[in-house]
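ARCHIVE RECORD
Type: protein–small molecule complex
Small molecule: 3,4-dihydroxyphenylalanine
Source of inputs: curated submission
Record status: active
Notes field left blank by submitter.
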Amino acid sequence: MARAVSAARGWVPETIWRKVGTNLHLQEGHPLCTLRAAVQGYFESSAPGEFGFFNELHPVVSTVDCFDALCVPRDHVSRAPSDTYYVDAGRVLRAHMTAHDVPLLRRGLKAFVNCGDVYRRDTVDRTHYPVFHQVDGLRLLRGDADAGGELRATLEGLARRLFGEVDVRWVDAYFPFTHPSWELEVRWRGEWLELLGCGAVRREVLRNGGVGDEYQGWAFGLGLERVAMVLFDIPDIRLFWSTDDRFLEQFKGRGLEARYKPFSVYPEVCKDVSFWVGDGFHINDVHELAREVAGDLVENLSVIDRFAKDGRESLCVRVTFRCMERSLTHDEVNALFAQLRQRLQNQLPVVLR
Ligand code: DAH
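STRUCTURE (tokenized, with ligand):
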């Protein structure tokens, strides 16, 4: 059997490297930029002059900043090479914007809001993409201040700035770097939508940032795509990467009022592939190969059948191809699918059936 594609050997696909530096959150008129600007504008007006804003921090960070300094346990899933892109043993493409908190604290900053692209190996479907964007913020306060009250008031205010006069609720949560931790949810079109994670920054994290014990801190993190998809009615996360004017023009100059109307829905083409899996197999590697071969033409990948026989496991995976901007031809899809089968066989510990 072929050797597994493994990020443990420092493997970041070319397709991922090509996204670095695109900075959709800084492209005027792009929905992610509109949303980033709205969040930033909220912090600028709610506490004038207090927050520093960092929108161009480089996405290659040390594993120390991304995990250790934030008290992420050694066995936490986010550290696994099947989840995070390792550049080498000591560096990753940041899996969250929180990776910058300790370095910014070390620079002596007391309040900041960062925005940028983050990278995670993930499944292929309409809401997941290996690159997405987060806003992450932190504020230090003197030990006797009401940090919990300020956190709640500030983040509820943010929710209403983005969604209008909505109901909100606080749900207990867990993050390694904050305690206690919560998620803030907003009621949107009859459903509870998770808006952000937040909490009181752990003393150990503050100390790692060189912050004295006379301070406490609160922090939050928010995924821009997920919010933009519900706020602007965007049905597929791949659209954020579209350069089609029929997409982009719908957002220019409209601010948070923009609502996306699909310009057309092109047909999907489905293909199934079955294989036996061997040692070291991880389903995320199949998702990644599909993206490498078909780029944004692959819409969904799901395991539709699995069974075990004689101690071996067999999977059947359905790959859905669809382009957001035109109809795909059968020849084109057949060629992509043949290439995917070939690379599965050559690069992953599987035997095609
Ligand atoms: N980094 C977290 C994530 O990616 C989100 C988050 C939660 C950030 C709480 C924070 C925080 O700064 O305090 O899911």
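CURATOR ANNOTATION: The pocket of 3,4-dihydroxyphenylalanine is lined by residues 96, 98, 136, 175, 178, 197-199, 219-221 (CB under 6 Å).
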